């Protein structure tokens, strides 16, 4: 009996040692970014959308209810990777065009470079959109061990053409294929997981193409939503469902290969949904490209079966796109570099503590001449918030988009109480001059630190015809 008892104790000691060893190691981090996913395009906000895999993780983890991104793609991605507000890197205006000699400058050390110093393997599968005119701005020259994806944006899902040039690569080589991009990305992610040594911490960055226009999806997914008569919304919903299925396949491999108990899954969109392309942001106002809530409040969550100590709830703490940088480093046990704008919110996510972010600067755009800032309750905006200024319903049941009258006569100063009025219906600036002044002072503080937006004209040297019809580095 004593022998059996000692064996049991030894077994328990070994078991707890094994568990403690796994948890004490730097976690594998899977960072998933959906492209152009609107606030009302996730199943924890609407019953119309089907995403069983993402929904399960979101509800089992922590839904981030006040996670803000930039109004458009490149600015958000620059914040994810650098930890800086885009108005501190010159990327606050619009997106990086394919023919522009524009980029996230190489003086900014980015996320995978810090993680590699901690012993991480680092891989990216999907969209880059942070510049490619010189090789030094491309992923495998900036800390990623491998890259499969495309450099620019808005390309065809099958032909992989964007702005009259082909754009699909594996590492630095052109990858010729007419396969649906999501299938290529899913297979590559699974390949990384099955060939990687589980004892080495892994950072897998998955900035998927779905659900950005053009609206293209295999018919089997579109048929899933035959009840939606509007074709754009039907295709868009099918693209969301296809994305979810891809994530489900990747999560199964994580589980089968033994990663899951030592992994953290992080998910976000890169900007609000484009209402002209089937997306929806209700009950929020505006859309992609605007500094309304519908353009900047992003659907997001974090999930882990091991590292989250408070789960199955929605956290209302403030978060900015730049905070993903510092939070991922915090989860990995890496010291946050001095000077970055991103805050380490890992304690908020893992323990349910209050957010240390007290305010969010939505943008300071000296070319659009607009800006906005939010504190825990109030949001102040200056200038025209963007092209889409109203509340956009779901496309009509008759198969046509419901017409919406744009609001054009907007005051230059607008203040909203987001706790009482998250849909930004009621401008209360005139009634609250002291709040306007307080937030103006804070915004002016940030404006003093902003640098001019860098948005050069297209360079004819970029022409894909100079590179065999392919968008390629080597012209700046």
UniProtKB/TrEMBL annotation:
<feature type="domain" description="Sulfatase N-terminal">
    <location>
        <begin position="27"/>
        <end position="334"/>
    </location>
</feature>
<keyword id="KW-0378">Hydrolase</keyword>
<dbReference type="InterPro" id="IPR017850">
    <property type="entry name" value="Alkaline_phosphatase_core_sf"/>
</dbReference>
<dbReference type="Pfam" id="PF00884">
    <property type="entry name" value="Sulfatase"/>
</dbReference>
<keyword id="KW-0732">Signal</keyword>
<dbReference type="GO" id="GO:0008484">
    <property type="term" value="F:sulfuric ester hydrolase activity"/>
</dbReference>
<keyword id="KW-0325">Glycoprotein</keyword>
<dbReference type="GO" id="GO:0046872">
    <property type="term" value="F:metal ion binding"/>
</dbReference>
<dbReference type="InterPro" id="IPR024607">
    <property type="entry name" value="Sulfatase_CS"/>
</dbReference>
<dbReference type="InterPro" id="IPR047115">
    <property type="entry name" value="ARSB"/>
</dbReference>
<keyword id="KW-0479">Metal-binding</keyword>
<dbReference type="InterPro" id="IPR000917">
    <property type="entry name" value="Sulfatase_N"/>
</dbReference>
<protein>
    <recommendedName>
        <fullName>Sulfatase N-terminal domain-containing protein</fullName>
    </recommendedName>
</protein>
<comment type="similarity">
    <text>Belongs to the sulfatase family.</text>
</comment>
<keyword id="KW-0106">Calcium</keyword>
<feature type="signal peptide">
    <location>
        <begin position="1"/>
        <end position="24"/>
    </location>
</feature>
<feature type="region of interest" description="Disordered">
    <location>
        <begin position="456"/>
        <end position="476"/>
    </location>
</feature>
């Amino acid at each position: 009996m004593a022998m059996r008892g000692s064996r049991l104790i030894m077994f328990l000691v070994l078991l707890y040692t094994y568990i403690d060893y796994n948890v004490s190691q730097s976690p594998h981090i899977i960072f998933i970014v959906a492209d152009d996913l609107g606030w009302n395009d996730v199943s924890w906000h609407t019953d119309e959308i089907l995403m069983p895999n993402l929904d399960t993780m979101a509800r089992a983890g922590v839904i981030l209810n006040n996670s803000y991104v930039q109004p458009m793609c490149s600015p958000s991605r620059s914040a994810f990777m650098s930890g800086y507000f885009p108005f501190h890197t010159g990327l606050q205006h619009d997106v990086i065009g394919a023919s522009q000699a524009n980029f996230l400058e190489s003086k900014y050390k980015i996320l995978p470079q810090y993680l590699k110093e901690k012993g991480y393997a680092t891989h990216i599968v999907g969209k880059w959109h942070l510049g490619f005119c010189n090789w030094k701005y491309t992923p495998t020259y900036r800390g990623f061990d491998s890259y499969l994806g495309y450099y620019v944006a808005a390309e065809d899902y099958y032909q992989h053409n964007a702005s009259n040039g082909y754009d699909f690569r594996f590492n630095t080589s052109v990858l010729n294929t007419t396969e649906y991009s999501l299938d290529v990305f899913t297979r590559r992610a699974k390949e990384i997981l099955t060939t990687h040594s589980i004892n080495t911490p892994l950072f897998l960055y998955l900035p998927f193409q779905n659900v950005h226009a053009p609206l293209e999806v295999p018919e089997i997914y579109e048929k899933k939503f035959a009840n939606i008569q509007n074709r754009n919304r039907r295709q868009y919903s099918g693209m969301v469902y296809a994305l979810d299925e891809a994530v489900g396949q990747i999560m199964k491999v994580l589980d089968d290969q033994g990663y899951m108990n030592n992994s953290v899954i992080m998910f976000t969109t890169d900007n609000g949904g484009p209402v002209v392309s089937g997306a929806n942001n209700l009950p929020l106002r505006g859309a992609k490209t605007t500094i309304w809530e519908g353009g900047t409040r992003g659907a997001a969550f974090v999930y882990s079966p091991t590292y989250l100590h408070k789960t199955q709830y929605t956290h209302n703490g403030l978060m900015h796109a730049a905070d993903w940088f510092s939070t991922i480093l915090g989860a990995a046990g890496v010291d946050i570099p001095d000077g970055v704008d991103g805050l380490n919110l890992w304690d908020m996510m893992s323990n349910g503590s209050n957010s240390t972010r007290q305010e969010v600067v939505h943008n300071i755009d000296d070319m659009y001449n607009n800006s906005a800032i939010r504190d825990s309750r109030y949001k102040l905006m200056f200038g025209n918030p963007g092209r889409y200024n109203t509340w956009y319903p779901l496309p009509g049941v008759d198969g046509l988009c419901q017409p919406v009258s744009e609001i054009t006569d907007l005051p230059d100063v607008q203040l909203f109480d987001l706790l009482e009025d998250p849909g930004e219906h009621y401008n209360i600036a005139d009634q609250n001059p002291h709040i306007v002044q307080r937030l103006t002072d804070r915004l002016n503080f940030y404006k003093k630190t902003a640098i001019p937006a860098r948005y050069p004209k297209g360079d004819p040297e970029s022409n894909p015809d100079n590179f065999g019809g392919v968008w390629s580095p080597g012209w700046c």
